[in-house]
Amino acid sequence: MAMNKKAIALSITSIMAFSLVLSACGSTNSGSTENANSAAPASSEPWKKEVAFTIGYATGDPATKQAMADAVSAFTKANPNIKINDLSGGGTAAYLDWLKTKEAVGEFPDLIEMRDTQLFAEAGKIAELPQAWLDLVADAPTLNDKHYTAPIIGAYPQGIIYSKKAYENAGVTAEPKTYDEFLAIQEQLKTSGITPLTFGGKDIFHWGFWVNKFFMDNMLADDPNWNSKRTKGEVSFSDAAPMQAMTDFTELFTKGYVEKGWASTADNQTASMLVTGKVAQLFSGPWMFAQISQADPNFDFGWYPVPDRKGRVIVSGANNLQGWAISTAANGDADKQAAITEFVKFFFSKEQYTKFLQAVNGIPTTKEAIQYEASPQMQRVLEVMGDSNTVKSMMINSFWGEDQMPTQWRNWFYKLAQEWLTKGDFSAEYMKKADAEWDANVKANAAAK
C-alpha cells in the first residue's frame, strides 16, 4: 500500500526496527547507579508477616485490566503471606462513580489507581506518598507541594487506529496534514462502502476521547488556564472556540462517519469491529494495540494523530496528577503501609514493569530506563511524542489546582452530548447549560468544604 511504503515508512526509519529504549521524560541521570538502585526490584526474600490489603484500579481496557491482575498474581505468588483483595470490576460504570460508591459503603481501597486526585486528597481520603515510592519514579507531580500519586504510565496520546486494507480499498494513500484532509478521508471511506468510525458510546469514559481532542485543539492547548477562567466567568462554553469544538465533534455523527449503533457499543467491542471489517477506524490510544492483535494476529493496522485545522498535532501528553495512591487509613496502619510499599516496589521493578509496559504499550515513568520490543504502531506513537513540533496538552478533566474541572461536570457533559446527538439539535443553548452546570458544581463544591 502506498501509504505504508511512503508516509509511514518515512516516519519509522529513524527508529530502531526491533526494539528501543524507553526512558522517563525529565530523568537526566537514569543510567546512574543511584537511580538504578532506587528502582531495583523488591527483596527476593518473601514477606514473613501475614497481612492483607485491598486494591482498586480502572478496568475499562481489557489489556490493562489483565496486566494489572497479572502483576497482583505474580506478587502474591512470590509473597504468599501478603493477601491482596482485588476490588476492581467497575464494569461500564464511570471509574470515579465506582470509587465514590466504594467509599460510601466503607470499601475504599487501600491501594488505588487514582485519577481524580484533587477530589480525594481534599476529602482526606488519600495520604502523601511514602518516600520509598517517590524514589522509584522520575517525575511525580505535586498538589499544593505534596505528592499523592506515583504515575503508573506516562500520559497516552490518542489517535486514529486504522485498517490498512480499508484505506487501500478507499484509495487513501497518505496521512492527513490538516483536519480538513482528515474529513476528506472519512468521505473516501464512506464512499467506498465502509463505515469510517466505531465509537464505544455505551461506556461513559469513551466519550472523553473525541470530546477532549476537540477541546484541546480549540481551547486547552492554547490556553491551559481556560478552566480557571470558566470558573471566574471570564469565558463561556458558548464562545466561538468551544462551540467550534463541539460542532466538529457533532459533525462526525451527523455526517454519517460514526457507526449508527454507537449508543450500544462498548469500548471493548471496538477492536473486534475494526478487525472484522465492520468499520475502518477507531480513535483511541496505544493500549488498544494488544487487544487488536489478540483479536486477529494477522490484522494489518496503523496509527496516526489527527491534526487540527491549522495542521498542528495536539495530543494528550502533558504530565498529569494520576497514578498509584495510598488511602489515609492504610497509610496509618504500619503493617499495611509496609506491605503495600513492597507491592509498589515490585510493580515498578525492572522485570515486572517491563512486562506491564509491553502488555499495555506503555510509556515508562521510572527513574531507571526500561527497554522492550515495540510494535511498528508503538514506534509511531513514540515518534510523535518525541517530535518537538507535537503540542502536548491535558484533557479538560486532568487539570488541578485553580484549573481543576468540577469533578461532577465531566460525566454530566458527556450525557448532555448524548442528548443532543440523539435529538439532532445541537446549539449554543446546550453550551449555555454547560456553563450553568459548571457554575452550580463549583458553588456546591465550595459549600461542601
Automatic annotation (TrEMBL):
Signal peptide: 1-24
GO biological processes: maltodextrin transmembrane transport; maltose transport
MF term (GO), any: maltose binding
Sorted UniProt keywords: Signal, Transport
Cellular compartments per GO CC: ATP-binding cassette (ABC) transporter complex, substrate-binding subunit-containing
One Pfam family linked to the record: SBP_bac_1
Family of this protein: Belongs to the bacterial solute-binding protein 1 family.
Protein known as: Raffinose/stachyose/melibiose transport system substrate-binding protein
